[in-house]
Amino acid sequence: MAQFHCTSCGEVEEHDLVTLEACASCGATSVVNLEVQAAQVAKANDAFRAAILSGGHPDYLGRAVCTQGVAAEGLDFVVHAQIAVAAFSEFTEDNDPYGDHTFGSVTIADKTVWFKIDLYDESYSFGTDDPLDDARTRRVLTLLLPSEY
């Protein structure tokens, strides 16, 4: 059973099909298999995360930032957090329910640090219209302490 999202009317439908030709609600042909989309976003997010140590990814554009709480721990802490986040691969249904690798948790010097990846438009003003459009999607990876959420 797969879920499909119509990008025209917003309807979400479940079907036994792998692909869906048109939305049952509005007839639009702009339907997305959410599981396939999540897997593609996860692949891009993983590449983006891994590249934060080398100045960024050439195709998956964006920035890495940290909150005041993480920054207050000092430069060594931030660098160790970035290294751990770049190498993170322990995604489970508990910490990644949508399968898109947008969230994780690492421990640095006995402190929990969360990371979150958000997908924006080119101006970082709104969410991206199409998370699979690498030319127009910008990623923001935020390092934060759980108390700052």
Describe this entry's structure for a reader:
- With 149 residues, this protein is an alpha+beta fold.
- 23% of the residues lie in helices and 27% in strands.
- The protein contains three helices and seven strands; from the N terminus they run E-E-E-H-E-H-H-E-E-E.
- The chain has helices at 34-50, 68-71, 75-87; strands spanning 2-6, 12-15, 31-33, 62-66, 103-108, 111-120, 138-144.
- The strands form two sheets. It has a four-stranded mixed sheet with strand order 4-7-6-5. Strands 2-1-3 form a three-stranded antiparallel sheet.
- The longest helix has 17 residues, at 34-50.
- It is elongated, with a radius of gyration of 17 Å.
- The model has no long low-confidence stretch (mean pLDDT 94).
- It comes from Salipiger mangrovisoli.
How would you briefly describe this protein structure?
By secondary structure, this protein is an alpha+beta fold. Helices cover 23% and strands 27% of the residues. The strands form 2 sheets. A 4-stranded mixed beta sheet has the order 4-7-6-5. Strands 2-1-3 form a 3-stranded antiparallel beta sheet.
Q: What string gives the helices and strands in order?
A: EEEHEHHEEE
Strand content: 25-35%
Radius of gyration (CA) equals 17 Å
Mean pLDDT: 94
Strand order of the largest sheet: 4-7-6-5
What is the tally of helical segments?
A: 3
- Distance from first to last alpha carbon: 34 Å
Low-confidence stretches: none
The major β-sheet equals: 4 strands, mixed
Structural class determined from secondary elements: alpha+beta
- Shape designation: elongated
Q: What is the number of beta strands?
A: 7
Helix content: 10-25%
Pfam families: DUF3768 (PF12599)
Protein name: DUF3768 domain-containing protein
Organism: Salipiger mangrovisoli
